[in-house]
Amino acid sequence: MNHLSNNELQSLIDGAIMNGERSRLMAHLEECDRCRREIEFHRSVTRVARALPSVKPSANFTERVMTRIAPREQSAWLRWTLNNLGNIFGMIFVLGVLGYFLTTPKLFTFQTSNEPSKLTEALQTYHGLYDNAKTFIVGQAEKLKGNPPAVSAATDETGKIPVMVVSSLLLLVLLDRFVFQRISRVRMR
Amino acid sequence: MHDKDQSIVDRVLAGEKRAYAELVDRHKDKAMTLAMRMLKNREDAEEALQDVFVRAFHALPRFEWKSSFSTWLYRIVFNVCASALARRGEELHRSIDEETEGETFDPPSDLLLPDAQYESAEFATMVREEVERLPSMYGPIFTLFVMQEMSYEEIVNVTGLSLSAVKVRLFRARALLREAVAKRLANDIAELPKEGVQESL
Ligand SMILES: [Zn+2]
Domain of B23? Predict the structure, then answer.
């Protein structure tokens, strides 16, 4: 007795059997316990496999896909700020250094010789102007606050260290932006 | 089903990007099952599936509805996972011997099927474990046909295999399952005297 070929078996399991073939195969199944069991087995496997649960990806799966395809829109100014971070820091740095030196006139005081040179004269003029301006501004500020005008403005030394720290950081950012990145860009080309 | 996919796709293409999340949610489980059958481990499957959904998103404007969305998506799953397998050094499209249909099949195994209870939970567990164990060549085809209820033609569309190769692989998947499950059923019957011990486990 010729048992069903695998091909015939599969066609029967999937219900994809030609009409002419069908009666011959059914006749065989009538008298062959073995082939009948094969078909019953495969149909059971199909039925069970069809009911198996799917494998679920982890809980944040969809969110991760969405972050990759549609990153949250940044506001325009934030994007501009991020893109120009180096320039902004550079500008603050320059202003900081300039401000530091301009508000600390005593740094400029150095003796070159006993005779006052033109530079020393100019610096002394600047010191005078600066002191006057400071006294005036501080005085106005105190008046606004309702305090009696104070003569002292001894805040020169305070705030220097943070200015120095920030300036150094900014210098690094500036170097990165204008020197290192430019070098790497040239290298990439 | 089809219409729902289409309306979501329309919304995405109209600029409502966040609607794509609905599409991902609808298809991720079945797509993950297919990826698991191919790659055999969760991390790889999930990573591949991330790529699949990102690619599908960018390819969406070119999708022409010649097939259902899921068929189209599974084709991407199949391709991405096949590339991942190739990177691992595993070849999915093997020799051409399977491309010729039919007569050369092995005859049904000599290991006779026992008169077993195919309704039992044990049988279901065996089938699940053995389906998970199917090699990457056959597991995906079996999954597409049986679990996703695709036709031969749809599987041809998804895998790019010939019709006869699809039939051969499907049959080999079934033959492997039959061998493995029959062996386990036979072992269970051989261990029947120890049934008391088994039940206490
Ligand atoms: Zn027979």
Answer: 2-88
